[in-house]
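Running low. Invent one:
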Amino acid sequence: MDASTAISRGETALGIEFGSTRIKAVLIGPDNSPLATGGHEWKSSFVDGVWTYSLDDVWAGVQAAYADLAANVQERHGVTLQTVGALGVSAMMHGYLAFNADGELLVPFRTWQNTITGEAAGVLTQLFQHNIPQRWSVAHLYQAVLGGEEHVTDIDYLVTLAGYVHWRLTGERALGVGDASGMFPIDPATGTYDEGMLGQFDELVADKGYPWRLADLLPRVLPAGAAAGTLTDEGARLLDPTGQLQPGVAVAPPEGDAGTGMVATNSVARRTANVSAGTSIFAMVVLEGQLKALHEEIDLVTTPAGDLVAMAHCNNGTIDLSAWVSLFGEVATAVGATIGMNELFEALYTAALDGDPDGGGMLAYNYLAGEHVTGLEAGRPLFVRTPSSSFTLANFMRTQLFASLGALRVGMDVLLKDEGVQLDSMFAHGGLFKTKGVAQRFLAGAMNTPVSVGEVAGEGGAWGMALLAKFVGQGQDLAGWLGAEVFARADVSTVEPDPDDVTGFDQFMERYRAGLAIERAAVDALR
């Protein structure tokens, strides 16, 4: 079947992902390869001390991304996009979207970027003896309780961004287990919220007299492959106001970006891991069993199939690195040179390969926001060198690339060194890895583990969500289905760790840990 016929017959699957800076849509065909893509740039706003996105921007953005996809279908395949075989929505995990019984948003969306729930996260972590990061929905809820916020009494539904969009598209209050595991702890034995911890939370707030139990506020939890509703008439118009898209499409359980990243890199089986690098950077390690101890640097979430995952999540990814690249682009423009951004990224990243193994004795922090893994409630991007540092372009870029992996290494040391977790493979995806052989090589050195990148990695989580949409009703094990149906003939490049890179990154990390005092001083001094 050719692509045009597949699209016309609906032998396709659509994945939509709300990333931190881009909303992306990917349409895949019967062979799981992308047939068309669409996208829309957006960004969060810092309003009254809170990182947020407006719901108007959510819908304007997804409509723009879908329209871009539909135009790409028309241009590449000569057909009008009117239906798909299945679709699914994923988005940034965690955060706080609270609605009343009339479906009205009670307070502006509080995203994962916020580090304003420290008191609540600390209380809940000790109460549950289970790490509750500041990003998690239940931490935001309890912080609102502690703050005496009036809206808490009126909450009827609490959900993530992906779950909210799914609700509006289908009318279903459902969430994939991977995304749900970033709202409240999941019991791997039952595949849903931990009943004991739900009871502990209700007891904790019992004196407040709220007219709800926590379980009543949360979406129901579904594993990958389960049916999660169909696209309604209203939902079809929300995606495509032109009226071309028809309702009735099967919709997968909405997932978080961590889960779709695992799917996109074939990292849902035990002893596999993946690293996603974008606005944030995080590693997902599928565990063979429970960890031996409580670690506040590590989140415990699940795969979209419900298997336990250790997540080392860092708020600060590639934004500061991209800002430096843009600055060099301004320099080029100032001297009359014309160079595209892709070419600029490739030239600067590749230059880093010629740097000293440790980056020439220099140090950088990419902290635009706070970084829980290293104990920072706020961030200030820094670049530091000593008189003896080797200040060259190659070393500068190597240091900046190393900095993007520094906080991640702190979290991974807990798993690989303290807990003795075993890994068979690590996959990497996201914009950081688009320049071949650079960040992939440095990650292998940072983790002293082979790192693989696939040709599909650039499509990222939206492609992973399209695969989860296609997986609905398959009745198979997710890892087995991915291995047999999607990745059996995948073009994957694997880089082994270079001993010099391993040693050099270790030396960089010695400076990184010691220099955190400088970062803390900068936060205190520069308000």
